[in-house]
Write a sequence for this structure.
């Protein structure tokens, strides 16, 4: 199965509310970039037909051992694809009506009534996508997890774009481009807080290094508008920063 990846990664970080809005990262890329991998997931909005059904929440769920089948699906065709992870199957029966209502609100409105992390579920993520990869909003229990994920995602996307391999093939060869250390990625926080595009489309390759430019675009939820601004700004402004991969040392740096 051929897996494609978008060549622009837009990220808008809201650290105080622990979520990131993005364009250019899909479910398969997200799952493949997590250091710990995904656990069981409770499906809030979806069209997946092979999940199991929980009578308390009236929602479908997918156990960890069945995730490979879900990862093969083109979930962007579901229109809305929203879920949260959970530790134990029995926890789904412990959610009360208010908590179930909050989860439904998350899926319907792509926003939260209360911080969307629950003692029963022990969840680490809430993943809210419309046309998966086009508009994604992901809540993180710990923002450190976001930076760890991003440190795998960027080299993984580079591998896909340069080698035209499947995502899993990209993961197997991830060592070629290493991993970007979270400490270096956190230097990017001021740019991501404003809303920034990491552009593989405009990257420069030489014998010694790869340079991936980053432009500040601003705060967008309409990704058509974001792409229009991207097209304008790359013609008129220099990048705010670059990710640079040194081919000899296999190390990443952020240059501003």
């Amino acid at each position: 199965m051929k897996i494609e990846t978008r060549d622009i990664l837009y990220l808008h970080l809201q650290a105080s509310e622990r979520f990131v809005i993005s364009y250019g990262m899909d479910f398969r890329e997200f799952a493949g970039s997590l250091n710990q991998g995904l656990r069981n997931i409770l499906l809030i909005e979806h069209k997946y037909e092979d999940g199991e059904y929980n009578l308390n929440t009236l929602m479908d769920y997918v156990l960890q051992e069945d995730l490979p089948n879900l990862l093969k699906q083109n979930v962007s065709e579901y229109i809305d694809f929203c879920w949260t992870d959970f530790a134990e199957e029995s926890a789904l029966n412990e959610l009360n009506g208010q908590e179930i209502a909050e989860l439904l609100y998350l899926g319907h409105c792509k926003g939260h009534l209360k911080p969307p992390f629950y003692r029963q579920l022990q969840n680490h993520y809430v993943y809210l996508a419309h046309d998966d990869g086009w508009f994604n909003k992901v809540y993180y229990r710990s923002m450190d997890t976001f930076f760890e994920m991003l440190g795998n995602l960027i080299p993984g996307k580079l591998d896909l774009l340069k080698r035209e391999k499947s995502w899993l093939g990209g993961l197997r060869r991830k060592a070629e481009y290493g991993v970007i250390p979270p400490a270096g990625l956190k230097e990017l926080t001021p740019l991501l807080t404003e809303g920034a595009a990491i552009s593989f489309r405009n990257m420069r390759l030489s014998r010694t290094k790869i340079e991936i430019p980053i432009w500040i675009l601003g705060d967008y939820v309409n990704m058509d508008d974001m792409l229009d601004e991207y097209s304008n700004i790359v013609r008129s402004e220099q990048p705010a920063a670059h990710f640079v991969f040194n081919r000899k040392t296999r190390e990443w740096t952020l240059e501003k």
Remarks:
- The helical segments are 27-33, 67-71, 97-109, 143-163, 167-172, 182-186, 189-194, 223-236.
- The mean pLDDT is 93.
